[in-house]
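Can't attach files on this board, so I'm pasting raw text. These are the components:
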Amino acid sequence: MKDMPPITLTVNGAAAQLDVAPGCRLSAALREELHLTGTKVGCDAGDCGACTVLLDGEPVCACLTPVIHAEGAEITTVEGLGAPMERLRSAFLRHGAAQCGICTPGMLVAASALLARPGTPDRNTVEEALGGVLCRCTGYAKIIDAVLDAAGATPRAEPAVAPANGVAVGARLERLDGAAKVAGTEVYGADYAPEGALWVRAIRSPHFAARFTLGDLDAFARDTGLRVFTAADIPGQNTFGTIPPFADQPALAEGAVRMRGEAVALVAGDKATVESLDPGSFPVTWEAAPELLDPPAARAPDAPLVHQTREGNILIGGLVHCGDPEGGFASAAHVAEGAAQTPYVEHAYIEPEAGAAWLDGDTLVIQACTQAPMMDRDDTARVLGLPPERVRIIPAAAGGGFGSKLDLSVQPLIGLVALKTGQPARMTYSRRESMSSTTKRHPAIMRARIAADATGRLTAMEFDGDFNTGAYASWGPTVAVRVPVHASGPYAIPNYHAEARAVHTNGPISGAFRGFGVPQAAILQETLFDELALKSGIDRLAFRRLNALPEGGRSVCGQELHGVGIGECLDALQARWDAAAQEAEAFNATHPGRKRGIGIASCWYGCGNTALPNPATIRVGITPQGQLKLHQGATDIGQGANTVITQICADALGLPIATFELVGPDTALTPDCGKTSASRQTVVTGNAALMAGRALRARILAMTNMGEAARIALHPGAVSVSEGDQTRRIELAALKADANGYALAAEETYDPPTHALDENGQGIPYAVYGYGAHLAEVEVDLALGTVRVHRLTAAHDLGRVINPLLAEGQIEGGIAQGLGLALMEEYIPGRTENLHDYLIPTTGDMPRIDTILIEDPDPEGPFGAKGLGEHALIPTAPAILNAIRDACGAKVTTLPALPHRVLAAIRDAEQTP
Amino acid sequence: MSLYLRPGNLQEALDGLARAPAVVAAGCTDLFPATERPALDGPVLDITGIKDLRGITETGDGWRIGATTTWTDITRAALPPGFDMLKQAAREVGSAQIQNAGTIAGNLCNASPAADGVPPLLALDATVELASATGTRTLPLSAFITGPRTTARRPDEILTALHIPRDAGQGASRFLKLGARRYLVISIAMVAARITAAQGRAAHVALAIGACGPVATRLPEVERALTGLPLSDLPGAIDAGQVGAALSPIDDLRGDAAYRRHAATALLRRAVAETVEAPE
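---
Top answer:
Structure tokens for the assembled complex are below.
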């Protein structure tokens, strides 16, 4: 409406006039009109707090604030300077409080309001002040520590000193890419807006299964002024998927949909028109079809097939078999048998999928959030009928991924629009769209039995699981294969039979989520272990220690394992285990209505693809000017690859971290480091970085004829090498630059040595494993069935700790996700497509966390290092469930352990003698 | 772009509403989550520009809480102990961000069965003041909210204030909310209790439960049963059957109906016990 007067805002001390509707969200106005993209949008519903700004000093959600309410007020965003914000930024970096960084602006702004209040806040006050901002990466511990530090409530954590040559590995370094995250200048998927970009929106299925007919699209386009794209416009093969032999998902459905939220068409045009479109006005006619929503329905004999070529709706099954399970059970003294069921779990990263695409000459460039740039490139190219080299993927900063951003989301959609129109295109999923259309953790229906002899030694285990893989394959095959390999836990089990199936339904696609099915299997295995320990009359920790895989022991796949740190992890928990047991007993003696309990569970996890190649290539070069550049293609989604890979390369090369300039990830600039998943980057890309660093060092030493102990230094236009009183120089200008412009360079590829699994799952699935164990201490309210985890002690064997600050952050974040899995997270398709019905832990739900880092070097890992990303959440949920049972006898077998389920289990336990 | 009005005085607002219906907006913490669009769908009548509608004042017969008084305003107001439960509820609404924007009238007009403000306001004997171009009427809060997301407000009316009678400010009070996580959580069940004591006995008892039926409700039978009993006997005297009879909970993703009945009684006993223990 042109007669609307402009609205005048004061943002960060400066006046700005905006020509927007009075009822426009302040978040949209700040981002789109004032380009203050430090204010993030995670939900548009006040559920996540990422958009927190100060309105006259008080925190509000900008997404819930009509811009007119800000007129005449002082608005402060993360970009606003001020003493409290500066103190906070420094503390966030020193404490490692920003991982992916998407929640960081909201946290900083909420914390700055707290710091402006008189007095020194305590931990509870900080938790309350930050309670309205969700973080999915950190588990909040380091954020709260940083705020207490900035407030002067705790001693200042001193920043790690920039390490000298050769000692970067092991240093408690601030993340190298942190400055932009705390400044609010990091560019996430939704933050880059190419000039003149078309806004793209998908028309999605409201049905779980349906046939559809498109109506008069030309008339619709004429009436609305929008461009419309359907499957008919796709120039290539309308099928993508993360595992090429199983690729089955259309970018835009053709005639039928297999899930709610599946895209059938795109509309593109100016932002205002697209956003005001009522999707119900799009000309499509739906004919709902019978829907299969769980594996029992999908496996029924007369069930319709989700994919015609997949009999019985089984995508794939996995199997590991060793020894003589029947014999093992027959000779056992004790058998524990049980079942467990877990729901769909949503990744709930705070950044919904977003990105932009444009043409650069005849190259299609896509800048979007992702965990797997090279896979995105190849899959998008196939869908769009382009050779891969004509697609360039520039990963935007990813505001959390946890597995789901391995799969394509916006890429083929905005790519199609940019390619067809020649104009740039942008797309940002709504929270609902993100939750309904992207992948989830597989719901599992599992049963198992485990046997031990009279001395408590395990003799046999059987495991069987149906994993609801949803409408499309995604990572279903990986889950089906990983689960049988890992369902034993890190224990020696001589006789073993495990099967897992990925079962198609019309539910959301289940894909990769931190652990690929292993966390679900561990829930059943570790809770049954408690039962066996009780039956054997052995302390639950001692039972695990007795059965822990020994150094040189064989896994259920027959693999001889070295660098096995599970025993050390369990030993490290012994002291707290004993103390916690005593404390719980004392508490319980004086608290009739509340009971405390303790629980323990272990994890192991193979790093990298299961018995399949997954190489990484690192290039490191020195320009003729003497600049050192590391082409680091491992996408850092917050876990820290940018820092860790650099630390490894620095020590291999023998130059300090500060001399490195990072390049990429960018498929045009960085060699393929593979995907950020399977806890593989530290091990696989780390080894490539180690090799590349060493190769460059060897070349420099050879050129100067210096010994291994020589010291390398960079100078403008030269490299010097010193040993003793000798110094030699390489004049870089004298060298012929290579194709990449480097005077000196090395490029090395590492692929972990594995061996294919045979028909019984015997072989060498992974080159490196990591181990860990968690001790949970909980309190159960017997009247309400509520559970509070008040302390969690985590021991993880990392082989070699590359960066303790980042490692702790991974562990704390994993625990938060494990706690959510145990106690509150349940995605119900069609019902919990938002962050107020789907709950993830807040600041107030997290326990005190004590982390113990163990270093039992792996013979294969770089400097002995093992992966960690996924390990960290696997033991949490079973440790909590075991603690609940210890506290009150309640055996919760359907997750999450919501209060009503816990209370029902308490009642059941009371009735079972 | 649709119509968005933000008048500076009530008469203008009421005249506008008399001419054409509009969505009445205040803190917007419920309106924005209901749309994915970048701006509120209109026509909108935004009442936050009317200064007189915000704030708590003492009147001859009690207290007046203006419609656009935020949860944070309530938390910071100097009020007698009967209001403690309302302040406790205010601190449980969403998050600090929501409490700084969300208003008490918005909470009532949105009429969610899980609205945090309703049980304490019921236990405070609140009445609502509804104004229109043709006059002003008052209704007990219990008559105002008629069902999930429905109220007795006519399209031409604005809820301008709540009134709390002076007597209701007395006594000790407590609000308890049960959810599956600490912050930003929708209640599984919640209770409010306000008890006035005399000579060690309960002279006046006001109890209310929310999120256990289509609307939050007072518990008159339980209140009667407790009145006159020694304070220390109160928690034990709460009859689960009587509490359950007053509720009509549903099964949903947060909990099942049987659990809600059970939890409501357990919470009520706890709230009453804490109320009795609280220093007056």
